[in-house]
Specification:
Blueprint: H1 2-27, E1 36-42, E2 51-55, H2 64-67, H3 78-84, E3 86-91, H4 94-120, H5 122-125, H6 133-149, H7 161-185
Antiparallel strand pairs: 1-2, 1-3
Helix pairs in contact: 1-4, 6-7
Length: 191
Amino acid sequence: MFTQCTRKCASSMLLIVLLCCILSPLAQASKSSEDIRCKCICPPYRNISGHIYNKNVSQKDCNCLHVVEPMPVPGNDVEAYCLLCECKYEERSTTTIKVIIIIYLSVVGALLLYMAFLVLVDPLIRKPDAYTQPLHNEEENEDARSLAAAPTPSGARANTVLERVEGAQQRWKRQVQEQRKTVFDRHKMLS
């Protein structure tokens, strides 16, 4: 029941956000000033250092004469200076960028909610499986045997994650030793 509510809430929130992002730009008939620009890159010329000029102009006005303001050279050198400049008209869609970012953040948020759900609620709901219970009991018996063999400083049963990992590592080492005995000492080949 909780998962259905979470899914419904997340999907409805995502739908509302996407509709707001898509419908708000449609209300604007023309492109915003951030969506178009003319970028002129002018290299160094005589004693003037190179510079990059940006201006929001139409594609037909994307040239050095309309974008470079104030003109750094005197009137008779303007043509030579503008021939060196490289002007490019650039267009982008901020609406598409916003929608992509919102979708990305929504997916990340949904995954975080799902992770929180798994961490907090799933252990309470999950029932012990009849098939895995004997395996857990066997692992606990092996842990108890390995802990009995290794003395603990306080005498209490060690239950930390590090000690469990160490116990699993010891079991793995014993298995590897047994396999080595089987292969090298007894000279048996596996098929």
